[in-house]
Structure formats: C-alpha cells, structure tokens
Write a structure and sequence with these properties.
Number of domains: 1
CATH architecture: Roll
Strand order of the largest sheet: 2-1-5
Distance between the termini: 29 Å
Number of helices: 2
CATH class: Mainly Beta
Helix content: 10-25%
Structural class: alpha+beta
Radius of gyration: 14 Å
Oligomer: single chain
Number of strands: 5
Strand content: 35-45%
Order of helices and strands: EEHEEEH
Length: 89
C-alpha cells in the first residue's frame, strides 16, 4: 500500500491512513475526488470500523499516491487544479 491520506484537523492534530488503490480508472478517480470535495464528511473504513470525519473539523487533507503516473494524477484532478507545484515554505 503506497497511498496515504493525512487528515490535518483544525485543533492541530493529524491522522494518517494507508490504503490500497481504489480504482485503476482515471475517470472513476476524478469522480471519487469530486465526490469527496463536494461532501460534508470524509468516510473511511479501516480495520473493521467506519470512521466519519466532518469536513468542518478538517483544516486540510494531504493525499499521496507516488506509484500513480504524474499524467494520471493530473487527469484525476479538477480542471482548475495547479499541478507540478513545489512547497517552498
């Protein structure tokens, strides 16, 4: 499992999840991401439990999928996404 989703909460805490590829279809990835961004909750099934995190408690999400080709990552993102950026501070 090379994919990691980190939830950074407004109280400063952080929770990270490792998970398998959810779909190998770029269009399905785009739809899942759009659904996540439009939702009021992040829902994660892990280790036999379902966890529901209200978006209002999350400062930001960080999603890492290093095994996904760069062009496929860009294709799965919304059209307005900035790609190829680098954190400088």
């Amino acid at each position: 499992m090379a994919r990691v989703l980190s939830l950074h909460f407004v109280d400063g805490s952080k929770l990270a999840f490792e998970f398998p590829e959810q779909t190998d279809n770029v269009t399905a990835r785009r739809l899942k991401l759009a659904d996540l961004m439009a939702g009021k909750h992040v829902v994660i099934e892990a280790e036999g439990s379902v966890m529901v995190f209200p978006i209002g408690n999350i400062k930001y999400l960080s999603l890492t999928a290093p095994t996904l080709a760069r062009k496929d990552r860009a294709a799965a993102l919304p059209a307005h996404a900035i790609v190829g950026a680098r954190i400088i501070s």
